[in-house]
């Protein structure tokens, strides 16, 4: 072109990039990134609420898992055998021969028999229940409960005696007979093996 619009010299005007277009591109990229993150988060929430997260890490608990008690092994209690327990059979009732008959039955079940006779004034005619198993404090978790398996409903009491293997069986007004041998053996087994302690079990 000529005239006043004629370009002269070796320098040409440089064309500048449109800054508005750059801003639009950046805005679009940011929007796409935000939408992608929102979609990923939505999928994670769907997995959580629909049980999609079936795979749990070895160290953790899978989503939705519940804990429930399960039995665990319990140690066997060391209890004295009937042959190591000396039983004094004392009659606190008005019925004659009751102590002797009971002592004979206990002897057949393996217990040692000590004194057989009437109860002392402290208990004579004053025991309303089936009977009382009386012994040393050290026998509270040993000889006393072992002998109590032979008489359902017997009351366990302790005194100041020194020998933990010597126990009194005081027969009361409600006494009729010893527990059957089968039931007594079952009670003794249950006494030696307490109920299992609860532990937690994962149910997924």
TrEMBL record:
It comes from the Bacteria. The keyword Membrane applies. Residues 84-175 form the LytR/CpsA/Psr regulator C-terminal domain. InterPro entries: LytR/CpsA/Psr_C. Keywords: Membrane, Transmembrane, Transmembrane helix. Residues 57-80 are annotated as: Disordered. The chain crosses the membrane at residues 24-43. Pfam families: LytR_C. This is LytR C-terminal domain-containing protein. It comes from Streptomyces liliiviolaceus.
């Amino acid at each position: 072109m000529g005239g006043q619009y004629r370009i002269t010299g070796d320098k040409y005007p440089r064309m500048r990039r449109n800054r508005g277009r750059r801003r639009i591109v950046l805005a679009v990229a940011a929007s796409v990134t935000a939408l992608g993150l929102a979609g990923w988060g939505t999928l994670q929430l769907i997995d959580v609420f629909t049980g999609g997260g079936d795979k749990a890490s070895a160290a953790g608990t899978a989503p939705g898992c519940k804990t429930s008690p399960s039995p665990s092994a319990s140690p066997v209690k060391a209890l004295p055998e009937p042959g190591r327990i000396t039983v004094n059979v004392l009659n606190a009732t008005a019925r004659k021969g009751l102590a002797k008959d009971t002592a004979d039955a206990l002897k057949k079940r393996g217990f040692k028999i000590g004194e057989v006779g009437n109860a002392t004034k402290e208990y004579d005619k004053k025991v309303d229940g089936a009977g009382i198993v009386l012994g040393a404090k050290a026998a509270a978790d040993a000889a006393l409960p072992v002998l109590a398996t032979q008489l359902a409903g017997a009351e366990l009491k302790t005194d100041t005696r020194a020998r933990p293997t010597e126990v009194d069986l005081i027969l009361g007004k409600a006494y009729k007979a010893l527990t059957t041998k089968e039931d007594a053996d079952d009670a003794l087994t249950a006494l030696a093996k307490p109920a299992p302690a609860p532990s937690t079990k994962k149910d997924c």
